[in-house]
Write a structure and sequence with these properties.
The chain is built from 14 helices and no strands. The protein is mainly α and 299 residues long. The chain has a domain at 89-253: MetI-like fold (Orthogonal Bundle). The termini are far apart.
Length: 299
């Protein structure tokens, strides 16, 4: 008769469904609860004006001007949206905004990435000076440069042109600084190995650095696109032709002879903001990942 050798019973590594916390999960502490409550209050404080704008845009002008209630007496209506769409060239302005914002985003990311890589990896005369100049340019309000930029656009004949609208918005010192800080964290050994194999500096940048930088490039692209889409002051000054206006500027031309129309103003604001809301809903993971990435988390 052979002896039966009992196998030792190993503990089940899977977490149980009973009370308690998962391995490595920290229990809710008082500080975390307070922080969560503060975030909820801040989120509500941000959402309330947005919800009020939506409710106002769905009211009649009479209810919007005379009633402070969320529920209008005459019921909700899309009349304000129909009025704004009828009075303005919304499709053309939307196309103009999309085209100019896309071109600005492409040119800004391309030039900023090249400048950031040069500051991060290359040694050249005046490197520290240009790095300090870029950092200093971040704190200069863009409004300070409006008058010189307008005179330059006027001198070069760029007023009322897409070139005059796009080119001044391409320079983005903040994006150069952000990308340079990210490139500093890319292991230099990867680039040195490629250089030993005969790759040029541009090939290393294109084939190694850019693929490793996809999260931050996506985040920068979205931020630049949103900024270009929302920009009002410069397009308002440099564009007078209604056929070339962007959506934020064009909506401001939809005026009524009866004074301020609250429902129409809120409807115009919702129409201008809706594309950005859609962009954020589709790319929120890339935005969060790009902001939180400090190393090679996107590889």
């Amino acid at each position: 008769m052979t002896d039966v050798i009992e196998k030792p019973q190993l503990a089940d590594p899977r977490p149980t469904k009973g009370p308690g916390h998962l391995p490595g999960e920290k229990p809710f502490s008082g500080g975390r609860i307070i922080a969560f409550a503060i975030l909820v209050v801040l989120a509500i404080g941000w959402l309330l004006p947005f919800a009020w704008a939506i409710a106002t845009s769905l009211k009649t002008e009479t209810d919007a001007a005379s009633s402070s209630s969320w529920i209008p007496e005459n019921g909700f209506t899309l009349g304000a949206y129909a009025q704004v769409l009828a009075e303005g060239n919304i499709p053309q302005w939307t196309i103009n905004s999309f085209i100019t914002s896309a071109i600005i985003t492409f040119l800004t990311v391309a030039t900023s990435a090249l400048a950031a890589y040069a500051l991060s990896r290359l040694s050249f005369a005046g490197r520290k000076f240009w790095y300090a100049a870029i950092v200093a340019a971040i704190i200069i309000p863009p409004q300070v440069l409006i008058i010189p930029l307008f005179y330059q656009a006027l001198a070069f004949g760029l007023v009322d042109t897409f070139a005059g609208l796009i080119l001044p918005q391409v320079v983005a010192p903040a994006m150069v600084f952000i990308l340079a800080k990210f490139f500093d964290q890319v292991p230099i050994e990867l680039e040195e190995a490629a250089r030993v194999d005969g790759a040029s500096r541009l090939r290393v940048f294109w084939s190694i650095v850019l693929p490793l930088s996809r999260p931050i490039l996506a985040a920068v692209s979205i931020f630049v696109f949103i900024g270009a889409w929302n920009n009002f002051l410069w397009p308002f000054l440099v564009i007078n032709n209604t056929e070339l206006m962007t959506l934020p500027v064009g909506l401001q031309t939809v005026q009524s002879a009866f004074g301020v129309q609250y429902a129409q103003d809120m409807a115009a604001a919702m129409l201008a903001a809706s594309p950005l809301i859609i962009v954020f809903l589709f790319f929120q993971r890339q935005i969060i990942k790009g902001i939180s990435t400090t190393g090679l988390g996107g590889t």
